[in-house]
Amino acid sequence: MIKIQENISLKPYNTFGVNVKAKYFTSVVLEKEILEILQSKRFGSMNKLILGGGSNILFTKNYDGLVIHYVEKGIRLVEENEKYVIIESSAGEIWNDVVSYCVENKYYGIENLSLIPGRVGAAPIQNIGAYGVEIKDVFESLEGINLESGEKKIYKKNECKFDYRDSIFKKELKGKFIITKVKLKLKKEKQFNLNYRSLNDYLGKANKEKLTIRRVRETVNKIRMSKLPDPQRFGNAGSFFKNPEVSEERFIELKKNFEEIVFFKLDGKKYKIPAGFLIEKCGYKGKRIGDVATYNRQALVIINMGRATGEQIKNFSQEIQKAVFDKFGIELTPEVNII
């Protein structure tokens, strides 16, 4: 029997630590429980929010509907040959535990994604990425349930419309689909991506023959912990904004006005500008207003110093957007889902 709770605080279920309430709340561990909810007269047509680790969401108000907290766990090997493996993980599995599993078994491909908070189900929605790697690079397929029709469906990589921190699940299927399982294709042969600047600073001169997947993971962990706050201490959702991309023409113009601008050259005559650099140049690194601030080690991270509301965090983020636009003419887009 599914247990539905009423007027439940979502503070333990979002890494910003915002204290809002869900009108209805349930934790589910089986697909059949989801189908049962969809078929019920009371909850079938009600607004629903799928919540995993709550690591990429900002609540600005109470949720007037049903929050489904999907927590099914499990990782299994489904295919293997001499060159690669395919693993399947339940959507409720903690993402970093999947990375640990792969590192322990020497399955190469997601070690750069170590310590990213949240659960597996959210990874393809956001197309999570770090240090030159995105989940789309190893993605095979996913399966889940359409919340409107109750039908099960499998999505292959080419159907997911992956983009920078984006996918079909943030657009056409936003709020309409719950992911239950994810398959990843990983290499068995040693192969690392060390091109990202901060990672290359640590490992660029390392002996590639002796370099291990465990050392790469430990290095990524070290870099992340040096730059990002612990959500247990300061509520946050990691990077709040996407790194904006500009045309070559726009970049040349910016370079004339801001010689020190940091950038990454992309394919197709585009340039990616670190949002943290733009925010810092606007004087917002470490800036605090009430109980909201940017982290003093990484301006891209907005933190809850204690009792900030979601609305206050949202207003602070909009102030940053305005400052960056006024100074650089660049619009910052939130990476965080604002509800």
Topology (SSEs and partners):
Blueprint: E1 5-9, E2 21-28, H1 31-39, E3 48-51, E4 57-58, E5 63-70, E6 75-80, E7 84-90, H2 95-104, H3 122-126, E8 129-130, E9 133-134, E10 139-146, E11 152-156, E12 177-187, H4 197-203, H5 213-227, E13 235-239, E14 245-247, H6 248-257, E15 264-265, E16 270-272, H7 275-281, E17 288-289, E18 292-295, E19 298-304, H8 310-328, E20 337-338
Helix pairs in contact: 4-5
The CATH topology name of the largest domain reads Uridine Diphospho-n-acetylenolpyruvylglucosamine Reductase, domain 3
Major sheet: order of its strands?
A: 6-7-12-10-11
Using only CA atoms, what is the Rg? Answer: 21 Å
**N- and C-termini, Cα separation:** 29 Å
Name the quaternary structure. single chain
| Content of β-strand | 25-35%
How many separate helices?
8
Given the helix and strand composition, which structural class is it?
A: alpha+beta
Question: What is the 3D shape?
Answer: globular
Give the helix proportion (percent range). 10-25%
Give an overview of the whole structure.
The chain is globular and about 60 Å long. It has three domains: 66 residues, 2-Layer Sandwich (Uridine Diphospho-n-acetylenolpyruvylglucosamine Reductase, domain 2), CATH 3.30.43; 153 residues, Uridine Diphospho-n-acetylenolpyruvylglucosamine Reductase, domain 3, CATH 3.30.465; 104 residues, UDP-N-acetylenolpyruvoylglucosamine reductase, C-terminal domain (Uridine Diphospho-n-acetylenolpyruvylglucosamine Reductase, domain 1, Alpha-Beta Complex). The mean pLDDT is 93. With 339 residues, the protein is α+β, with helices and mostly antiparallel strands. Helix 4 crosses helix 5. It has a five-stranded antiparallel beta sheet with strand order 6-7-12-10-11. A four-stranded mixed beta sheet has the order 1-2-5-3. Strands 13-19-18-17 form a four-stranded antiparallel beta sheet. It is 24% helix and 28% strand.
